[in-house]
Each structure stands twice: as structure tokens, then as C-alpha cells.
């Protein structure tokens, strides 16, 4: 049999034995190609000027992906070499030279990698179409399926793949060529050595690592780049110190407590796991570090997505909003004229309204809000609006009609201030005492300064509002068609003219939605790209390690069957082993990432991360997404091992 035929046969067997690895490589290549397709898509980059940053962000993410996948391929290649070292030693004994065996191994892995590359690019085109549809949906654009390859995306994917794959294969080839027959035959018996051998050293390292983990988590939440980098370093030290001391300390702990060891099926679980955990400290720490990055990337992506979307919704509900801080109504009308001239000539309207926002002589509601929640105070006193203006604006927005008595007032607030519904005290405005008549919480331009109040506004009878001082003037409009980017740029040019104050408020619903969509695509998509690849990489390493134990599991359970253990107890022991094995590297990341996500979501301005966007909800969604992916690998591992090892 020629080397080529032998390589092809072994490649088929290798792909079967390491199917989870092959699938992970295929999916990674598919993701790399799909995101490269976004980089070279002129259609998507033309959606907004903010999309110009997308190629840079995807490239930075791809660099991290290449490094991580390079580590995975290098690790798996070395692992396969150790498992097949006796086979390679036998080849040399029967007359093959080291360089021929090295070429054989190189060709096998190159064949598997080539198949993964081809399959990944085909699958990647489908994933690219899904990403393209998602980006177009963010911008409210129609999607039409188009199956076409991007040669530039294929070329860049091939370059990344060569960097990932050939480096590991060339290194393994050099390693085989330099090894002797004895080294190859006994290479399989080599394991990662326990890092800390004495119990005293283990305890000290364990305590120090836990302290570093707590300190690192708090430093990550400090909000400073320097503290964040120091915190990341502390967490890395914590993970490697924790797993190095904890994993190698498990056998020692059981040896000193024989009563625990011989209880139930603990001995079986202990003997199986101790051999793994005591010699996998570095691998476990690396996997746990990757899981930490996965959870932080997923949680941050969800927070940024909701942040951009909620800000866009709350910034303006009107198609156009123009505001002036000048308290002189005639001066504001004069400043508004150039805008109106352009709008009349270029933007068809369905409705519009010019009105004023007033200031009360006191801050009764503002003080109440500050006492009961986190609130960014912008106005000295409570903001006030005429009922006639309020009713007209509600009609423009299609909200239900509301009524107001001559001695009453309404409160319109954002969702997070809805507890004002319980506020039942009278207010004094313009010398009149007004009684509460309800609270409304529809979106109403209450996020930006100089709009309809900061978080809330009081609606009072017209004659009472007119007795107050003017805070600022506003002009809002609903358009027959969405305001285009060119039209908004023209309005922005009017604002930037030297004859106009540069701090005029100029908002467009279309522009805010476009900026939110572009920010989501530029920041959130690369974060999830990273998170998905890191999760698959770490889970693959753990699963490959489990698959490698299939032969030992078979011998173990056959012996237990002869000793009288029934299949149910063996299945229980197997499930317990896998549960401990897969839970260990996942628990520290959860303890680190959840506080980080809660803190990041809480750092956003009040009123944005509420409802389904609350940081606690996002934390639960993040954990759900992570364990959904993780569960797929755990289920594959359990199903395969159970089928192959239980009698």
C-alpha cells in the first residue's frame, strides 16, 4: 500500500474518530468565510457611513479567532500524535523512515483539513446569507436570497486557514522526524504533570488564587482601562492557580479521607476523575479562561444591542424633531425658518407642531424622583407642557386621547419612572393648586436634553402653563416618507451654519434607527462571532479528552459487570463523572461573568436597560445561550461514550 493510499485511509478513520473536532473546524471556517463576506460586501457597507468600521472590527475579531483556532489545531494534532504514537513506532519498526511517517501524518491531517475547508466555505455562504439578512433587517431593508461566492472572502479565508493549520502540521512533522522508536512507542503514556506536589504549597496557591479571582472580578467592574487590564491579569492568574492547585489536590484529599472514597460509587468516580483532574490543570484553566471570555462577550453583546435599540427608540418618536434653547419664542421662530423652508420644499409632511416647554416655579416632582431612584437632573425645576400641545402630539403619534380638568395635571414619564403612578400629591404651578389625574408612559421624546422633559413632564391647562417661564421651543413633524440620509445631512448643514447656534437639537427617527443598526452590526456581530468560536473551541477540547478515554472506560465497566454491578449503577456513575468533568471549567466563568454583566448593564444611564433589557434578564439569557451550546457537546460526549462503553 502506498503512502498516499495509507494517508487517505487513515484520514477517513481520523475524521470518524474525531468527528467533533472535524465539525468544529468546519463551523469555524464557515464563520470566518461568512464574516469575511460582510467585510467585502459593498452592499452592506453602503448602508451607513458608520459601517465603514465593520471591516476593522471583523478583522480584529478574526485575528483572535485565528490564534484560538491555531491553539485548538495544535492541541488536537499533538493529542492525536500521542494517541497514535505506538502505531507510528510500529511503522518505523517495519522499515519506514521517520520522514515518511511524518509525511504520512502530515498528509492525513492535510486531507482532513482540506475537506473541512471546502465544506466550511460551502456552509459559510449560507451563514453569510443569514448574516446579510440580519443586517438588512436591522436597517429595515428588503432581503433577497443570492447564492454567490466572494473570491476575496475565499482568499482571505484560505489565508487564515493556512495560518491556522499548516503551522501546527509542520511543527508535528518536525517533531516526528526527530523522535526515536522508543519515544514514539511510549509517547502515549506521557501526561501533564501535577503542578503542585506538596499539600502546603497547594493550599497556599489555592488561597492566593481565590483572592486574585475576587480582586480581578472587582477590578474588571471598576470602569477604567488600566484597572480592567490588571483585573484581567488577576483572573488569568486565578484560573491557572486555582485549577493547578485544586485539580492536583483532589486525589490527596480523598487519600486522607477513605470513608468518603468508599461511599456508594464515589470510588469509581474518584479513580476515573483523579487520573484526569490531577494532570489536566493547565488544560482546564485554559478552557475555563475561554469560557469566561465567551460569557463576557455574549453578555456585552446583548447589553450593547439593547442599549443601541432602546436609545434609538427613546431618543425620538417623531420623524423630525428640532429644538431651540432660546427662551425667546420670537427668536426661536426666526431660527426655525431656514429649516421650515427646506422642509416645505423637500420633505412632504403628514402633520407638524411647534410648541414650547415651560419651567415650573418649583421642583416638587423632580425632588421626589431624585429621592426614589437614580436620576440625572438636568432642569432646575419641573418641566411643564400645555394640554393643547400634549393632546395634539398624542394625536400625531396615534396614542389614545386623554382628558384634563381645569384644576388637574397629568404626568407623562418614561417607563422606568412609572412608579409616579402612585404619586397623589397636589402641585402648585403659576399660583394654582392642581390635583393629579394620571400617569402615561408611552414613548414621548424624554431621553435627550431640551426635548419633552428629562424622563418626565407635567401636563397642565394652557393658561397655567403660559404663566410659566419658557425653557425651550420645539418643532416636531411626521413625514409621508422616512427622512433620507441626504435630507438629514441638508438639515444638519443648516444647523452648522454660522448664523445658527451649534447646540440646536436636531433629531430624525430614521437617522437614529440607522445609527443604532450600524452600531449593532459593527460591535455586536463581532462579539458573537468571537463568543461562538471560543465556545466551540473550548467544548471541543473537553470532548476530545473524553473520547480518548473510551477504551479505558470499556475495560473498566466490563470488569465492574463481572464484579456484579448492574447497568443502572454504571450509568449513574458515568453521568456523575461527566457532570463533574464538564462542570468544573464552567463554574468559575459564571461567578466572574455574571457580576461583570450586571455591573456593565447598571452603568448605563437610567431608563435604558429596563424590562426585558434589565441586566439580570440579560445575564439569564447569556447563561442560557452558553449552556445551550455547551449542552450539545456534553450530549454528544455522553451519548457516544454510553453507547460504546456500557455493557
Provide a quick synopsis of the model:
This protein has 647 residues and is an alpha+beta fold. The protein has helices at residues 3-17, 19-39, 42-45, 54-83, 85-93, 98-138, 151-178, 181-186, 199-220, 225-255, 258-261, 266-277, 281-315, 329-346, 364-372, 387-397, 462-466, 485-495, 509-547, 550-562, 567-583, 587-602, 615-645, and strands spanning 320-324, 349-359, 383-386, 408-413, 427-429, 432-440, 456-460, 469-479, 505-508. The longest helix has 41 residues, at 98-138.
Explain this structure to me?
It is built from 23 helices and nine strands. Helix 4 (54-83) runs parallel beside helix 7 (151-178) and helix 13 (281-315) runs parallel beside helix 22. Strand 5 and strand 6 (432-440) form a beta hairpin. The protein is elongated, with a radius of gyration of 32 Å. The protein has 647 residues and is of the alpha+beta class.
Q: How large a portion of the residues is in β-strands, by DSSP E?
A: 5-15%
Instruction: Choose one word for the global shape.
Output: elongated
| Largest sheet report | 9 strands, mixed
The gyration radius over C-alpha positions equals: 32 Å
Keywords:
elongated; alpha+beta; 647 residues
Amino acid at each position: 500500500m502506498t503512502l498516499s493510499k495509507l494517508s487517505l485511509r487513515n484520514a477517513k478513520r481520523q475524521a470518524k474518530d474525531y468527528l467533533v473536532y472535524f465539525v468544529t473546524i468546519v463551523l469555524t471556517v464557515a464563520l470566518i468565510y461568512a464574516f469575511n463576506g460582510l467585510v467585502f460586501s459593498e452592499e452592506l457597507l453602503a448602508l451607513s457611513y458608520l459601517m465603514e468600521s465593520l471591516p476593522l472590527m471583523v478583522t480584529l475579531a478574526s485575528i483572535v479567532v485565528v490564534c484560538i483556532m491555531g491553539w485548538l489545531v495544535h492541541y488536537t494534532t499533538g493529542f492525536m500524535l500521542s494517541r497514535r504514537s505506538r502505531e507510528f513506532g510500529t511503522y518505523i519498526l517495519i522499515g519506514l523512515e521517520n520522514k515518511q511517517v511524518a509525511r504520512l501524518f502530515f498528509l492525513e491531517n492535510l486531507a482532513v483539513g482540506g475537506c473541512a475547508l471546502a465544506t466550511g466555505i460551502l456552509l459559510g455562504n449560507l451563514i453569510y446569507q443569514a448574516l446579510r439578512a440580519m443586517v438588512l433587517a436591522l436597517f429595515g431593508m428588503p432581503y433577497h436570497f443570492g447564492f454567490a461566492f466572494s473570491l476575496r472572502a475565499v482568499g482571505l479565508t484560505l489565508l487564515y486557514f493556512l495560518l491556522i493549520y499548516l503551522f501546527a502540521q509542520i511543527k508535528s512533522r518536525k517533531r516526528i522526524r526527530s523522535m526515536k522508536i522508543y519515544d514514539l512507542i511510549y509517547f502515549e503514556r506521557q501526561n501533564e504533570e501535577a503542578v503542585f506536589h506538596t499539600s502546603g504549597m497547594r493550599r497556599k496557591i489555592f488561597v492566593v488564587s481565590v483572592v486574585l479571582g475576587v480582586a480581578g472580578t472587582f477590578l474588571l467592574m471598576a470602569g477604567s482601562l488600566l484597572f480592567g487590564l490588571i483585573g484581567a491579569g488577576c483572573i488569568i492568574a486565578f484560573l491557572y492557580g486555582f485549577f493547578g492547585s485544586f485539580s492536583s489536590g483532589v486525589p490527596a484529599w480523598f487519600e486522607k479521607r477513605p470513608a468518603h472514597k468508599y461511599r456508594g460509587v464515589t470510588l469509581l468516580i474518584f479513580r476515573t476523575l483523579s487520573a484526569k483532574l490531577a494532570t489536566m490543570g493547565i488544560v482546564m484553566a485554559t478552557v475555563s479562561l475561554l469560557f469566561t471570555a465567551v460569557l463576557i462577550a455574549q453578555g456585552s453583546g446583548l447589553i450593547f444591542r439593547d442599549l443601541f435599540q432602546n436609545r434609538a427608540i427613546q431618543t425620538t418618536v417623531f420623524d423630525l424633531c428640532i429644538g431651540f434653547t432660546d427662551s425667546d419664542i420670537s427668536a426661536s421662530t426666526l431660527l426655525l425658518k431656514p429649516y421650515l423652508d427646506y422642509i416645505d420644499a423637500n420633505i412632504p409632511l403628514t402633520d407638524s407642531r411647534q410648541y414650547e416647554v415651560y419651567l415650573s416655579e418649583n421642583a416638587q416632582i423632580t425632588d421626589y424622583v431624585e429621592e426614589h431612584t437614580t436620576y440625572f437632573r438636568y432642569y432646575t425645576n419641573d418641566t411643564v407642557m400645555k394640554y393643547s400641545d400634549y393632546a395634539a402630539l398624542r394625536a400625531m403619534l396615534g396614542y389614545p386621547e386623554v382628558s384634563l380638568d381645569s384644576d388637574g395635571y397629568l404626568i407623562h414619564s418614561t417607563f422606568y419612572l412609572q412608579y409616579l403612578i402612585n404619586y397623589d400629591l397636589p402641585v402648585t404651578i403659576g399660583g394654582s393648586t392642581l390635583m393629579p389625574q394620571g400617569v402615561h408612559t408611552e414613548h414621548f421624546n424624554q431621553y435627550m436634553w431640551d426635548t419633552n422633559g428629562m424622563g418626565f413632564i407635567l401636563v397642565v391647562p394652557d393658561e397655567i402653563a403660559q404663566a410659566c417661564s419658557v425653557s425651550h421651543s420645539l418643532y416636531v413633524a411626521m413625514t409621508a416618507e422616512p427622512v433620507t440620509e441626504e435630507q438629514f445631512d441638508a438639515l444638519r448643514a443648516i444647523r452648522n451654519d454660522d448664523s445658527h447656534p451649534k447646540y440646536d437639537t436636531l433629531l430624525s427617527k430614521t437617522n437614529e434607527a440607522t445609527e443604532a443598526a450600524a452600531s449593532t452590526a459593527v460591535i455586536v456581530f463581532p462579539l458573537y462571532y468571537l463568543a461562538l468560536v471560543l465556545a466551540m473551541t473550548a467544548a471541543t477540547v473537553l470532548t476530545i479528552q473524553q473520547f480518548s478515554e473510551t477504551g479505558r472506560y470499556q475495560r473498566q465497566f466490563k470488569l465492574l459487570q463481572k464484579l456484579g454491578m448492574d447497568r443502572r449503577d454504571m450509568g449513574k456513575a458515568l453521568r456523575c463523572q461527566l457532570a463533574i468533568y464538564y462542570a468544573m471549567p464552567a463554574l468559575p466563568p459564571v461567578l466572574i461573568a455574571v457580576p461583570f454583566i450586571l455591573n456593565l448593564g447598571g452603568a448605563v444611564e437610567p431608563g435604558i436597560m429596563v424590562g426585558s433589557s434589565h441586566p439580570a434578564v440579560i445575564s439569564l439569557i447569556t447563561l442560557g445561550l452558553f449552556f445551550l451550546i455547551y449542552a450539545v457537546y456534553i450530549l454528544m460526549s455522553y451519548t457516544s461514550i454510553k453507547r460504546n462503553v456500557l455493557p
